[in-house]
Predict the structure.
Amino acid sequence: MSNDVQGQQVLFEGMDRFCGPLHQSDIGMMLRCRRALLYRYKLGLRPKSDLRAGAAGLGQMFHKIVQYGPGGIEFAKKWVQDQQKILWELVEKGEDVDGSIAGAVKAMTDHYNKAMAIAQLYWERYPDPEYLETLATEVHVEGDVEICGNKVTVAGTIDKVVRDKRDGRLWVRDWKTSSRDMNYIMTGYQWSIQCRMYRLLAWLWAKQNEIENPEPLGFIVDGVRMPTIKYCKKDVDFAAYIERCKQWYKDNLIDAFTSRAIRYQEPMLSDIFMSSLVDAAYTQKDTALELWQYPKDMTASYCTNYDRQCTYYGLCEVDQCQWPDIIERQFKVVEPTDNVNTETGEVNE
Ligand code: SF4
């Protein structure tokens, strides 16, 4: 046994090792950089700064408002205020060393206003068609899938499961919010891990709830392009801000919404998806944590994903003997949960 391996065992001694359900973000990470998966999923390392700035982003806010619907605006408002209150208590306890928490509280108000304006436009333009019945909204699903003798536990939250009353078939409905071009955001969505996982989760949910015809027929993606203008003193009231947003879309020749329904073209457990799930099953069971099984991304492309340096770069560039020190200063150990950036549909890094 090499010194490295001995060192690694000493390091992992006393550290939590998670074996919880796998989310689509974990599987995505597994395919792109196994080392990042070790840090995040198996060891549960999250930067302390991330935890402090745990405020809901624009995409999450929009999801929440639409989830409550036109009749639930007060609930959505309270949800935001409750989150702000928790963050504000941290400021009052003196934990806002760099002002980021106060900044996050303010940003939440801006995001809420923007998300609310766009939700109003959406409800005005796309009332739910009469033939679509919503069976579940923002539903958290967890379940087991058996693949080639391997059990893998998967989990995640689906935006919506709807039923077409005309033929009784299920569809997965998903929001994508972004300030970028929706065509670009949706490129490849149909064969992405997210899309495949939602299909699987919707099927598990339907079976758990004894829904007839549990396998979804396809998915509906509602792309929402967010304006870059904020509610401010220029607007005499909120209605004026909504009008200004409408004008912004016109001036920029941008359509605020893109809705697409696409039928699945491949089996739910396609060969490519199954191979990822089998790989995930082994990862889920792994408690030995041999470092060689979690190699760094040799292409280094994931190290600078979205033009940002990877959260774990500091751990990757030093010898493992320095990890305890860095982890103590920069990270907290938390049980990993679904951690998807709702702006891009991609994993937050
Ligand atoms: S720095 Fe690169 S190799 Fe290291 S965990 Fe991040 S993506 Fe992987």
The CA atoms of residues 82 and 181 lie 32 Å apart. The two ends are 34 Å apart (CA to CA).
